[in-house]
Amino acid sequence: MKLSLKVLNQSTIVSAFLHLKLIICFIIFSFSLIAQKGTAQIIGSLLNQNQEPIGFSTVALFDSDSVLKHGAISELNGNFILENVTSGVYTLVIKNIEYSPFSIPNLKVVENEVNKLGAITLEKASTNMDEVVVTGKRELLEVHPDKIVLNVANSINASGRNGLEVMRSAPGVIIDPDNNIILQGKSGVRIFINGRPSRLSGGDLATFLQSMQSDNIEAIEVITNPGAKYEAEGNGGIINIRLKNNVNLGYNGNLTHSSSIGKEPRMSNGLTFNYGKDKLGITANLTRFDNVFSRAFLDNRQQEGFEVNLLNTDRSIQQGYNFSTSITYTINKKHSVNFSSGAVLTDGDFTVKANTDIYRESTPVIDQLLISKTLTDLNSDNLNYNLNHQWKLSESSSLSTDLSYGRFRKGTRIYQPNDYYEAGGTVKIGEVNNGFDTDTNIDLYSVKTDYEKTFDKFNISAGFKYYQVETVNDFIVSNVVENEYFVDESRSNIFNYTEQVAAAYLNSKFSFSKNLKANVGIRVENTASQGILESSVATENDHVIRNYTNFFPNVGLAYTRGRSDFNIGYGKRIARPNYEQLNPFEQKESELFIFKGNPFLSPSYTTNYQLTYSFDKALVISNTYSVTEGYFATINETDGAVAYFVPQNMQSTTNYGFSISYPVQIAKWWEASYFATYNRRTYDGDFEQATIDLDVNIYSGRSQNSFKLPLDLTMDVSVFYNSPWIWRGSVEVGAYSGVDIGLKKMFLKDKLQVILNANDVFNGYTHYTYTGEYGGMTMQGIRSFDNQRFGISLTYKFGNQQIKSRKRRGGLDDELNRIAD
């Protein structure tokens, strides 16, 4: 087949660019005229005796009673800023494990003034660094008004799992039977890696997450209402996966091995190396993974006079390498650069066996039996590169610029024989043998810049981003006769999808008084996209072009009274369809189960409201309400015994949510955190073959427990429950629960860590049941996954582990975490 790639109208994009620049300039000018009453700021920078910047130092402000009132960590370029400081006389204390403590007594702070301390030179400490040990522990689960953080590095139960499995442990997150991610009842969740968005979706995203190992993950951040600085993409919010990147002063690293057994074995081996000296910091990680996944499902459908029973079992083998590296260089006290890259190389073999009994409802006996065995060979390369430049313009302003390129290549070869038999299963009455060759090429180009400026009365941040995604999906269908492949041009196609987004944002923080603060932001995004279908068969939907501009406001208000904090948030989000959802040609799981894209699928929009109360920085209660217009639902369309799965826009869905969390120290040897949610979801849609009107109440709860046992053993126990919920916007999935247990022990002077864990001990979330009824069709079924697993993880640390890490924050971590932003 011939490929002719068309491009978007460049004049349209240039016009949109100019439009965005005018808008953002106007907004910045308008905000610059505003002068609100605010509290004071303290600004400075830290240098060593060679006039080189000192990062990751603790800067603390104490009152006359030696009570810690404010704190910050100096950035890599040495800058630090203390915001929202009330008037008074303080003592400023600066600590860094490599330098002698530095203090400024009787520092007078006047309201609405910026105290510029200038450059502060620290003297080298005489302490022998080989004898210094930095200790500290973060809570396994941190709940903030704007996000929830699951500290994976502190989780025993997370050890030995892949990224998709770990994500299931995050509060409010559900992984549906299609491996899609649902957050607090909402789909359309956007995945970020180290603060940068992943452009993969659907099965490609699931495969990528399964290639990540928990031993390389520092934390998972769940952000339900992101601010204007974040891309507006993702109706369900953002989940940011922070990878480990501990660049130490010196060198060190670790060797890891993890293996587990369930129905199938899984194993990974990894090496991490860190090096830091003077201005240079390097980290590199290489992991080899060998995973086997299995699942089975039994599906019963009654549609258009037929009853279809499907028994499906599949087994997939995924092997490959995951490599990442990061290099940071501090040029001088004003400039630093970072280059990071990542590569995931995967080879997979999939085998799917399906037996389908076909009845006519008028007769109680089997009319036909369909037996198919699908063999798939898959290989994919996922590469990404990012160059970042940090520029300290002045003591109160900075500019950050990122250039990124991503490259994804996937080749899939499928052989799918379909044999029809009479009821007894011995007399063959026909066969249809298909071959599918699919090549997917995705290229991503991105540039963004972020500017921050602190004024006397408030601070402001603004930025611009442009990205372009080019996707080419070559789909070749063959009829297979006696092991010879004959291309069927009528069923083959090339689908090109290009998306260009130009965005700008403006955000400002105000302090109206000591207790009242506001955060106001606006983001504008212009989207220009086109889908081009090239096929020998003429269709109406072969060329779809869209160009639209949207504004996404985000407002937050915070009020503090004593030990209580109140936060109110409002924001808007968007979900854009991906190339898999837009390609109108058929992709067959079998002759009776077919996925077909919808080229006229429109973006969906969500409006979020959030009210959060916290007490003593521990108890957090949150109420949320959201409305989504144009929700992506997967609707089953029927044609006799054949079921088509087609994504369509639903009129609206609503979600009312309530959550409560509380960490508690039950005893010296027992720490626990509890998290519970309630969501009421409604689904309303009128389609050609069906009307959907669903109203469901969803409850979930999670308890994380950590026990200190004799013999220096640590045990983690996680218990969770999730009530029935809605899958694909039309099918109800039954309740499930689970218990995970892990044990940890250190050996060889804490150089060797050994973890034993058991996941889904009682088989509570190995099986999912589901039911659905609409458009004259009823369905019910059960899907089973290989979730009950028992494993071991080993980590051996080498090099000097007892030196200060650039990434760590120092001895006042716990105190600083108690201070409001």
From TrEMBL:
<feature type="transmembrane region" description="Helical">
    <location>
        <begin position="12"/>
        <end position="35"/>
    </location>
</feature>
<dbReference type="InterPro" id="IPR008969">
    <property type="entry name" value="CarboxyPept-like_regulatory"/>
</dbReference>
<dbReference type="InterPro" id="IPR037066">
    <property type="entry name" value="Plug_dom_sf"/>
</dbReference>
<keyword id="KW-0472">Membrane</keyword>
<dbReference type="Pfam" id="PF14905">
    <property type="entry name" value="OMP_b-brl_3"/>
</dbReference>
<feature type="domain" description="Outer membrane protein beta-barrel">
    <location>
        <begin position="396"/>
        <end position="796"/>
    </location>
</feature>
<dbReference type="InterPro" id="IPR041700">
    <property type="entry name" value="OMP_b-brl_3"/>
</dbReference>
<keyword id="KW-0998">Cell outer membrane</keyword>
<dbReference type="Pfam" id="PF13620">
    <property type="entry name" value="CarboxypepD_reg"/>
</dbReference>
<keyword id="KW-0812">Transmembrane</keyword>
<dbReference type="GO" id="GO:0009279">
    <property type="term" value="C:cell outer membrane"/>
</dbReference>
<keyword id="KW-1133">Transmembrane helix</keyword>
<protein>
    <submittedName>
        <fullName>Outer membrane beta-barrel protein</fullName>
    </submittedName>
</protein>
<dbReference type="InterPro" id="IPR036942">
    <property type="entry name" value="Beta-barrel_TonB_sf"/>
</dbReference>
